[in-house]
Design brief:
Belongs to the peptidase A1 family. Keywords: Aspartyl protease, Glycoprotein, Hydrolase, Membrane, Protease, Signal, Transmembrane, Transmembrane helix. One of its GO terms (biological process) is proteolysis. InterPro entries: ALE2_N, Aspartic_peptidase_A1, Aspartic_peptidase_AS, Pepsin-like_plant, PEPTIDASE_A1, Peptidase_aspartic_dom_sf, TAXi_C, TAXi_N. Helix content is 15%, strand content 27%. With 640 residues, it is an alpha+beta fold. It is globular.
């Protein structure tokens, strides 16, 4: 490990969380105050990044050649291509999958450019919450080594091992030991597994305890950052890229290493000496083509304009926010302003917009950010709006005032459906508008899987090797699916599970976006301390088979661990998956609808005929009874 120029291990993180907000996790030196300024109760919490010292040569020049989107050049470094999961506004973060150890153990880690350390829960942690995956078990990894106490780290009480501790603004925390092991980036990466230092948590509190994700993947500038460690080893160029999905579309792509930028990518200078965070030289903002009446220096206050992947929304200095709000409202005068979804915040929301994201530009104005070099980043409405959760066709501003702090903080909402290239080697950040859900196919190159550390231990349910082939969630076209059966393992005792199986069925239906009536429990059995549950997903009542798209969606959600169950059910693992064609039906099953229709028609016809006959009989005159001696008038005979 490279020698640290400052004592990072005792550094203080600053963290704040809101229902739609997972802000940056950022370092400060131990002696500095964690100044995290907030506005009044009428606005959402301000996101201000604290400062820590940065080495002058923090950006290392490793390679001059860069990758192409389709294939690498002969002298270029390999890179790690990794998928992103979850959604910044719905889940509060984006995660990626990282494998640690030999054999590899999988973890879902929040990608955060404001953090400089990667950590996961350790098996020895007695104060860690239940997360998406089992805890890391260093005793089962043949390649794990603790980082021994040295002058560059904080040590445990026995001065045997390096430790870390992270404290957060709302009193949540993470602490543990530093270890070194092999990190694997999945089979869709060209980069071979690499040794790196990471944190093995022993204590979690607050939001870190309750979050669904396992831990943090630090992408910031610092010696413990995954990016810095890989660059220091010379295995990737000094660059990485992120591409977040758009509104209503989660997931995305991350690339550790360089790629060749598109010709129309807009760049902004990023000065690592200006602040330790990824900053850009923003000079002005334009709304509907008109620049806001602001001094360009307003975007250079304190830490300047910081780009952070772990922050949900965007936060402007007071004067800039007021000017932006007034310009937007001036363009939206035909719309009706309404209250926000959360009464605790004075969100600025409007009703009357289209529910179709692609048509928002017809109603909401375009916004541009102009950089010091004259290049501009065009923001679509999805880059500064979020959906109103209670009113259909209503949207709210996702840009807020940063309290009284002059820092400009640009969170993930600004770069939705935008490829962001952090070119640290050349001190610039690039932006390219694209459909991030399709970018993966452009970046993916079919080839051999990267080597995976060989397993020297027996099988264990908490250990999983990266797949040997790229996951293929597309089923053959034309296949009719009668039902989907799958088996899942839950880390909960069967006696604790059985009383809650009905609720679990409802959660499964909700997460897979099917009706509760379609989810059928097949079997529940015990396996050690775990429970094995078998399910069947049947077609809805209105159709006879499950569509290919629905089946693909169900499988991808299960296999990629995007099904989020309450913590009371523990962690789950997909064991088996099977699709079955519609069962062969008898003559009666095939034609019962027609027979039933004919039968109903006959019954109705008989009822109508009977009713008509009865009414006709009642209308005929009935001769009344008369005594014998009563004279009866003669009736005239009708001629033949």
């Amino acid at each position: 490990m490279a020698r640290a120029s400052i004592p990072l291990l005792a550094a203080l993180f600053v963290f704040s969380y809101h229902i739609h907000l997972y802000p940056a996790i950022s370092l400060t030196p131990p002696s500095s105050s964690s100044a995290f300024l907030h506005g009044g109760g009428a606005i959402r919490p301000a996101m201000v990044l604290p400062l820590y010292l940065s080495p002058p040569n923090i950006s290392r020049s490793v390679a001059n050649s860069r990758r192409h989107l389709q294939r690498s050049g002969p002298n270029s470094h390999p890179n790690a291509r990794m998928r992103l999961y979850d959604d910044l506004l719905l889940n509060g973060y984006y995660t990626t999958r990282l494998w640690i150890g030999t054999p590899p153990q999988r973890f879902a880690l929040i990608v955060d450019t404001g953090s400089t350390v990667t950590y996961v829960p350790c098996s020895t942690c007695e104060q860690c919450g239940r997360h998406q995956d089992p805890k890391f078990q260093p005793e089962l990894s043949s390649t794990y080594q603790p980082v021994k106490c040295n002058i560059d780290c904080s040590c445990d009480q026995d001065r045997v091992q390096c430790v870390y501790e992270r404290q957060y603004a709302e009193m949540s925390s993470s602490s543990g030991a530093l270890g070194e092991d092999i990190l694997s980036f999945g089979n869709e990466s060209e980069l071979a597994p690499q040794r790196a230092v990471f944190g093995c948590e022993n204590v979690e509190t607050g939001d870190l305890y309750s979050q669904h994700a396992d831990g943090i993947m630090g992408l910031g500038r610092g010696d413990l950052s995954v990016v810095d460690q890989l660059v220091e080893k010379g295995v990737i160029s000094d660059s990485f890229s992120l591409c977040y999905g758009g509104m209503d579309i989660g997931g995305g792509t991350m690339v550790l290493g360089g790629i060749s930028p598109p010709t129309d990518m807009a760049f902004a200078n990023s000065d690592s000496l200006r602040s330790p965070y990824y900053n850009i030289d923003l000079k002005k903002i334009l709304v509907a083509g008109k620049p806001l009446p602001l001094n360009p220096k307003i975007f250079d206050g304190k830490h300047g304009t910081v780009l952070d992947s772990g922050t949900t929304y965007a936060y402007l200095p007071e004067a800039a926010f007021v000017a932006f709000k007034e310009a937007i409202m001036k363009e939206l005068h035909p719309l009706h302003q309404i209250r926000g979804p959360d009464p605790n915040y004075n969100d600025i929301c409007f009703s009357g917009g289209s529910s179709d994201v692609s048509k928002l530009s017809d109603t909401f104005p375009a916004v541009e950010m102009a950089f010091g070099n004259g290049q501009k980043l065009l923001l679509s409405p999805e880059n500064y709006l979020f959906r109103h959760s209670k009113v259909r066709g209503a949207y709210c501003l996702g840009i807020f005032q940063n309290g009284k702090d002059p820092t400009t903080l640009l969170g993930g909402i600004i770069v939705r459906n935008t490829l962001v290239m952090y070119d640290r080697e050349h001190s610039k950040i690039g932006f390219w508008k694209t459909n991030c859900s399709e970018l993966w196919e452009r970046l993916h190159v079919t080839g051999a899987s990267p080597p995976v550390p060989s397993s020297s231990n027996g099988n264990n349910s908490t250990i999983e090797s990266p797949p040997t082939e790229p996951p293929n969630h597309v089923l053959p076209g034309g296949v009719q699916i009668g039902q989907i059966t799958f088996q899942m393992s839950l880390s909960i005792n069967i006696s604790d599970l059985k009383p809650h199986v009905p609720e679990l069925s409802e959660f499964i239906a909700q997460e897979l976006d099917v009706n509760t009536s379609q989810v059928h429990l097949l079997n529940v059995m015990s396996k050690g301390n775990n429970s094995i549950v078998s399910w069947a997903i049947l077609p809805s009542d209105s159709v006879s088979y499950i569509s290919n798209a629905t089946a693909t969606s169900i499988y991808s959600q299960l296999s990629e661990h995007r099904v989020q169950l309450p913590h009371t059910y523990g962690n789950y693992q997909l064991l088996q998956w099977k699709i079955e064609p519609p069962a062969d039906r008898t003559w009666w099953q095939q034609h019962y609808v027609v027979v039933l229709a004919v039968t109903i028609t006959v019954i109705v016809a008989l009822l109508v005929s009977g009713t008509w006959f009865i009414r006709r009989k009642r209308q005929q005159p009935v001769n009344s009874y008369k005594p014998v001696n009563v004279a009866v008038p003669e009736q005239e005979l009708q001629p033949l």
